[in-house]
Design brief:
This protein has three domains: about 5-95, Arc Repressor Mutant, subunit A, CATH 1.10.10; about 125-145 and about 395-500, Aspartate Aminotransferase, domain 1 (Alpha-Beta Complex); about 150-390, Aspartate Aminotransferase, domain 2, CATH 3.40.640. It has helices at about 25-35, 50-55, 60-70, 110, 115-125, 150-165, 180-195, 210-220, 235-245, 260-265, 290-300, 360-370, 375-385, 390-415, 440-450, 480-500, and strands at about 5, 10-15, 75, 85, 205, 225-230, 245-255, 255-260, 270-275, 305-310, 335-340, 350-355, 420-425, 430-435, 455-460, 470-475. Helices cover about 40% and strands about 15% of the residues. The protein is built from 16 helices and 16 strands. The strands form four sheets. An eight-stranded mixed β-sheet has the order 5-12-11-10-9-6-7-8, with helices on both faces. Strands 13-14-16-15 form a four-stranded antiparallel β-sheet. Strands 1-2 form a two-stranded antiparallel ribbon. The protein is of the alpha/beta class and about 500 residues long.
Length: about 500
């Protein structure tokens, strides 16, 4: 059902019966906004409840509840038998529409209020933002699974199993490290699919991979410690290290991943190194065995920690998934992290880390100091989802689907974007890299794409040092062939405009 509008002299009241927000709340919000923005002035009458209910085809009780809420919060006034009107006691400055600036000037008091750490965090965010509209997924948004392919009926049934007949242990603070059956299920999966050496006791459940990294940095780093990080690398990880007060030393990557010669030349006594060995983010190469062993030997000699982020490790389209770096570790120097956000759905907010046995108790204590524990019922449902085989079946289906979507994107892009963007095939992951001509700035290209309803983040946003070439990152997993083809068409228009090329 669509929106119904009741046109008044001062505004349009718009409600949507299909929305999850109750009708009385929508009506209340419409009037409240009209009052605060000055479209309804002090002393203006609100329509009679019966008349408004008839115009909007809703019950009079709904209108009365909304009016009562406005009255109780002081936005309106009135008496029995008289009209409801906007109160005359609100300060005049509240009855005006004050525009919010698009961005804060560096000279403004609000900007100056930021700490140096806050300024560093803001500077780490890409200059081209993704669209934030509810449910708005535009090609080629990164790290987005195909939600339409998720077995929602199975997931709903599993959630209902615990929501309708919950056991008492799901309602308390009994599982700081995570729901026991989920920890066991994750450990079993990691042993068989990722060659991780672990038992259930070593698995700690957290709300996502970034929180896993946050916990590791809190427990293992002091402010001022040096952290080595792949360059380019994920800006969200950079933010975690900034919040920890660490000194971030960028390490370039080559066609085989992080450069160990640069790692070994660092004289700041690094305390930690962050790597994505199975599928380097964002460039996509795999760290070979020889370099993995070399990294582990360096960590042993330097008494440094390795954070292994198993980024997109499940999505490999040529051969079997690459075994973990942690599985080769004989000195317990590796902290392994993963998440279900990319393989299932982002709002699930369940991730995990695997820690060495001697650190388990300390990490659980640190976990308690962050937020006690994540929500338990979704963990119980996820444990069943894994144990009953739904997880591995879903992964198999998605590998096949995503592989075909990558192939289709490559086919269409090579036909339509020749001379504008050179896209490289990848054996794994959820995005492709498109290289721009040397004279084209990737931030300018990304902004042009955004103006054409395409989300293609610039590679330069992920680099700590200036990169040698500009590129765009194209996520493809969440989009069907029609959406991919349309996205390529809009991207072609955007890039032709930036490069001054003619569209054929």
């Amino acid at each position: 059902m669509g929106k119904r509008a009741y046109r008044l002299p001062f505004a349009v009241i718009s409600i949507n019966p299909s929305a999850p927000v109750p009708l009385y709340r929508q009506l209340y919000s419409e009037f409240r906004s009209a009052i605060l923005t000055g479209r309804l002035k002090a002393g203006n009458n609100l329509p009679p409840t019966r008349e408004l209910a008839n115009e909007l085809s809703i019950s009079r009780n709904t209108v009365m509840i909304a009016y009562d809420q406005l009255l109780s919060e002081g936005y309106t006034e009135g008496h029995v038998g008289s009209a409801t009107r906007v109160t005359s006691t609100l300060p005049e400055e509240m009855l005006q529409s004050v525009p919010i600036p698009a961005q804060t000037s560096r000279d403004s008091p609000m900007h100056n209020a930021l700490s140096k750490r806050g300024e560093r965090l803001v500077s780490a965010i890409p200059p081209v933002r993704a669209h934030q509209g509810a449910g708005k997924f535009l090609p080629f948004r990164l790290a987005s699974p195909d939600l339409a392919s998720f077995p929602l009926d199975v997931w709903t049934r599993l959630l209902s199993r615990y929501s309708r007949n919950p056991s008492p242990d799901l309602f308390g603070y009994a599982h700081a490290a995570g729901y026991p059956r989920l920890r066991a299920a994750i450990a079993a999966y990691l042993r068989s699919a990722r060659a991780v050496k672990c038992e259930a006791e070593q698995v700690i459940v957290v709300p996502g991979a970034q929180v896993a990294l946050e916990l590791a940095t809190q427990m293992l780093l002091d402010p001022g410690d040096t952290v080595l990080m792949e360059d380019p690398g994920y800006f969200g990880v950079r933010g975690v290290f900034i919040r920890a007060g660490a000194h971030i030393a960028p390490v370039p990557v080559d066609e085989q991943g992080i450069r160990l010669d640069v790692v070994k030349r660092n004289n700041d006594h690094p305390r930690m190194v962050y790597v994505t060995p199975s599928h380097q983010f964002p460039l996509g190469m795999t760290l070979p065995l020889a370099r993995r062993l070399e990294l582990l030997e360096w960590a042993r000699a330097a008494e440094a920690w390795i954070i292994e982020d198993d980024c997109d490790g499940e999505y490999r389209y040529a051969g079997r998934p690459i075994a973990s770096l942690q599985g080769l570790d004989t000195e317990n120097r590796v902290i392994y992290t993963g998440t279900f956000s990319k393989v299932l759905f982002p709002s699930l907010r369940i991730g995990y880390l695997v820690v060495p046995p001697d650190l388990v108790d300390s990490f659980i204590a640190g976990r308690i100091m962050i937020d006690l524990q994540p929500a338990t019922i979704p963990q119980a449902a996820l444990a069943d989802f894994i144990e009953e085989g739904h997880f591995t079946r879903h992964l198999r289906r998605m590998r096949k689907l995503y592989g075909s979507r990558q192939s289709f994107l490559l086919e269409v892009a090579r036909a339509e974007l020749s001379g504008l963007l050179e896209i490289q095939q990848s054996e794994a992951g959820m995005h492709l890299i498109g290289w721009l001509p040397p004279e084209v700035n990737d931030t300018d290209a990304a902004r042009a794409a955004s103006r054409n309803n395409v989300q293609a983040l610039p590679l330069s946003a992920f680099g700590l040092k200036r990169s040698t070439g500009g590129a765009l990152m194209l996520g493809y997993t969440a989009f069907n062939e029609r959406e991919i083809r349309a996205g390529v068409g809009r991207l072609k228009t955007a890039l032709a405009g930036v490069q001054g090329a003619k569209i054929h």
